[in-house]
Amino acid sequence: MRSRSNSGVRLDGYARLVHQTILCHQNPVTGLLPASYDQKDAWVRDNVYSILAVWGLGLAYRKNADRDEDKAKAYELEQGKGSKCSEADEGTATLHDQTAFFYCFCLLQVDKVESFKYSQSTKDSLHAKYNTKTCATVVGDDQWGHLQLDATSVYLLFLAQMTASGLHIIHSLDEVNFVQNLVFYIESAYKTADFGIWERGDKTNQGISELNASSVGMAKAALEALDELDLFGVKGGPQSVIHVLADEVQHCQSILNSILPRASTSKEVDASLLSVISFPAFAVEDNQLVELTKQEIITKLQGRYGCCRFLRDGYKTPKEVDRLCLLCFYQDPNRLYYEPAELKLFENIECEWPLFWTYFILDGIFSGNAEQVQEYREALEAVLIKGKNGVPLLPELYSVPPDKVDEEYQNPHTVDRVPMGKLPHMWGQSLYILGSLMAEGFLAPGEIDPLNLSILAETEEIKAILKNKGIDVETIADVHPIRVQPARILSHIYSSLEPVSQGIPHTREEPTILVMTAALAEAMQQ
């Protein structure tokens, strides 16, 4: 009997970790993931990020399978339906989670998509969270900062990436039409004020919406990923292709570049911008601006346990707890926002989130910076908490102990902090696992970012035509001995996960190559 390879054994270990920290929380009927054991609502953004580890593990099994059992696990992780929480049945998830939110959007919120295109009103926006058991909305249209274009955009971005990797998420033309409608919903992100990734609005935290770089950048990435994508994969045709106006992408890019390195007009730099300048959005083409934003985050937001989300962030700090206690006695305990003067209380005691170190790990992998990957992997290992049987758990954040607040005020980043909040924080746990799979060589960057394309001309004549249009490209002969495949077989490539020599990219600098044929060049001339 053939024994398992070492890679198969290692993947089984990651499968147990994924099951024990993420999949065991997934609702077996709807496929949605609650924010935590105590918070039963399912946030769109958290669910998308939380399922990435499951998707990545499925790709790794598919790529490294040395038994039929491994191929079955890959299929279960990518395509399977919900199951009971048993170690023998870790299958579930990726497809189930994605289709669950599509159901939330398509069947329960379809009228809002139509209304929002005309009104741009916060009351007509898609909801940001849903009931985990029923997919129903959980709060009223005006009872939460629902308008978070980055959440809808990150869902669409990974809908595109997962489709390109070979998953079949969309099955009917009605569903294709709804995705096209969602494109219309996000394409005006560059001029739509929303509440941003942290649901708080402007810096004064009064629930005032404004343009946010996190939303504009993620929308740009989603629009680029979906443009000309066939949602039926290799089995589709013209009717199942999504179309995006190029002008809308350029508008998003211009506005994004004008905002960075700030998070918005009223807010300074925000750690969430890591998801815009690097994985998963890669929305900024100016390398100097990327580096400037990254250094701003490191300089102003990084601490000993992670990065704080933004300056004067009061979430789960001791002073916020004191404030909530006072509100219970003297004011409205249901008030969502702070008074402007209250923000000063949180200066220098902001909670630090290990989550953002997972982004630095992924950024290092995509940029080929092994030193950065090693640095942040070691830092992250130091703040992980060992659960039952030594299972590594990523906490939501680290907070200053109440009796050490004055000391931290005087000497920032010197007090030993304590873990608080969700354990594990599934969003961060998922990215930690995904980064580990990539750092250990089970996944190549191009396998979770399959839509990064470069254009080559098929012949010298086509190269000349494109040059006349102001587009400088190389020909297939220029890149010899690299083997180039036509774009039409992209889905075939990622479905079978052939070796790198078949065209799968390994880094952001080695993208999938699209061949500009004579037909495409002729169309451009017209």
UniProtKB/TrEMBL annotation:
GO terms for cellular component: phosphorylase kinase complex; plasma membrane. Gene3D superfamilies: 1.50.10.10. InterPro entries: 6-hairpin_glycosidase_sf, 6hp_glycosidase-like_sf, GH15-like, PHK_A/B_su. Residues 8-451 form the GH15-like domain. It holds the Pfam family Glyco_hydro_15. It is a lipid-anchor. Keywords: Calmodulin-binding, Carbohydrate metabolism, Cell membrane, Glycogen metabolism, Lipoprotein, Membrane, Phosphoprotein, Prenylation. It is found in: Cell membrane. The keyword Kinase does not apply. Pathway: Glycan biosynthesis; glycogen metabolism. One of its GO terms (biological process) is glycogen metabolic process. It comes from the Eukaryota. Belongs to the phosphorylase b kinase regulatory chain family. Phosphorylase b kinase catalyzes the phosphorylation of serine in certain substrates, including troponin I. The alpha chain may bind calmodulin. Hexadecamer of 4 heterotetramers, each composed of alpha, beta, gamma, and delta subunits. Alpha (PHKA1 or PHKA2) and beta (PHKB) are regulatory subunits, gamma (PHKG1 or PHKG2) is the catalytic subunit, and delta is calmodulin. This is Phosphorylase b kinase regulatory subunit. It comes from Camelus dromedarius (Dromedary). The lineage of its organism: Eukaryota, Metazoa, Chordata, Craniata, Vertebrata.
